User: Which sequence fits this backbone?
């Protein structure tokens, strides 16, 4: 075995592992012109600093506009710095005698709470199969706007779930299709401002995805779909409803400058969207004794422009919308002593998100950046409280300055 230290081009994104780490080991024997065995240990170090100017997000390590408290009045400023987003990756590639490649990846960061290590990825991939935990196939893993803030646009789909995925091409190899069985996501039906009085139930069916991607030298276009069966418990009885969704995404990168976008829509897919993932409300009891999947729609776009080889800037815009129509019952959690119960009410939840940053590639593999983050959260609720019509309309915005550096070795 021998150790190879290699230097490549400038680090472009904190989430990319496009370059070989400094610590790379290869075998002496080879298949064709490539070493038969190659293993590397890489570190993607990131210093994350953020100054909250207003908006009540100073308890959130990421700029998640879904966590803005529209009923609150906390506009305290707050400055915090950490390195919890630093990632460690162990990657091994093995080429068999017939030329087929097996790749294995284990990746962790320190986002497990108070700097504790957390598993991000652990999977094995062959020519056509991928088994383990990595990016969910409903999202587009090639996309990520080059930003300092780590949450991403509110309608982004960046979940990592255990799955089994099959990949192949059509006769025209520029067209790729992917199908997967994804581990189901439990839904607790209890958002911060909304309690639809539904209990969580264990899931028993995997989520099913299918995607088609068209890849060219200039970038790619991709369309993906998902089908879910979501179980819930209402009045001590377990039942289920169907969720489904579509995404259309792409990247245009004819040179260093790049444009990325993603549009998503569906019902019962709120748990997949960044802004409410892990606390969402995929479904709700509607009037007439039915149970409906929550409609969700959103999109985002980003553009990166290089002024010079070292100076570049990014602009990102995004939005999401969730709405419950003719809900039979829910509780609005205000900061008052009395919760208001709305019967046969409507609930509309919208987020708007904007980012602008400037980055400088100070050294090889090192990028420093300064960023302005801005977001708005709107809630519009109308219904009947004890047969008396009522409504609540609340909006709150937040602003943050993010800064830091990223160094890959």
Assistant:
């Amino acid at each position: 075995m021998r150790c190879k230290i290699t230097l490549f081009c400038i680090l472009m994104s904190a989430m990319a592992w496009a370059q070989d780490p400094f610590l790379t080991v290869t075998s002496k024997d080879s298949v064709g012109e490539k070493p038969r065995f190659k293993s590397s240990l890489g570190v993607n170090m990131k210093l994350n600093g953020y100054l909250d100017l207003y908006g009540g997000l100073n308890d959130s390590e990421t700029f998640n506009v879904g966590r803005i408290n529209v009923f609150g009045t906390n506009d305290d400023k707050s400055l915090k710095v950490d390195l919890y987003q630093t990632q460690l990756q162990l990657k091994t590639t093995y080429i068999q005698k017939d030329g087929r490649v097996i790749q294995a990846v284990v990746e962790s960061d320190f986002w497990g709470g108070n700097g504790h290590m957390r598993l991000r990825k652990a999977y094995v991939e062959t020519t056509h199969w991928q088994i383990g935990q990595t990016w969910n196939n409903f999202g587009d893993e090639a996309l990520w706007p080059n930003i300092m803030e780590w949450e991403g646009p509110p309608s982004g789909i960046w979940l990592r779930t255990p799955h089994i995925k099959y990949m192949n091409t059509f006769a025209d190899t520029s067209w790729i299709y992917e199908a997967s069985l994804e581990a189901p996501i439990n839904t607790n039906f209890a958002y911060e401002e909304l309690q639809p009085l539904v209990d969580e139930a264990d899931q028993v069916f995997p989520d099913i995805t299918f995607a088609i991607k068209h890849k060219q030298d200039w970038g790619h276009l991709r369309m993906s779909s998902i089908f879910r069966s979501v179980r819930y418990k209402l009045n001590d009885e377990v039942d289920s409803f169907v969720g489904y969704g579509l995404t259309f995404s792409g990247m245009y990168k004819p040179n260093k400058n790049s444009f990325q976008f993603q549009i998503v829509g569906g019902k019962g897919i709120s748990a997949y969207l960044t802004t409410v993932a892990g606390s969402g409300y995929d479904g709700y009891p509607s009037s007439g004794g039915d149970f409906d999947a929550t409609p969700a729609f959103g999109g985002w776009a980003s553009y990166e422009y290089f002024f010079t080889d070292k100076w570049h800037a990014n602009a990102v815009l995004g939005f999401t919308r969730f709405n419950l129509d003719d809900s039979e019952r829910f509780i609005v959690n205000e900061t008052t002593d009395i919760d208001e119960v709305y019967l046969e009410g409507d609930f509309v939840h919208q987020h708007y998100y904007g980012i602008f940053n400037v980055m400088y590639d100070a050294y090889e593999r090192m990028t420093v950046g300064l960023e302005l983050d801005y977001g708005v959260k709107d809630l519009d609720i109308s219904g009947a409280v004890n047969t008396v019509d009522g409504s609540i309309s609340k909006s709150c915005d937040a602003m943050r300055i993010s800064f830091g550096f990223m160094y890959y070795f």
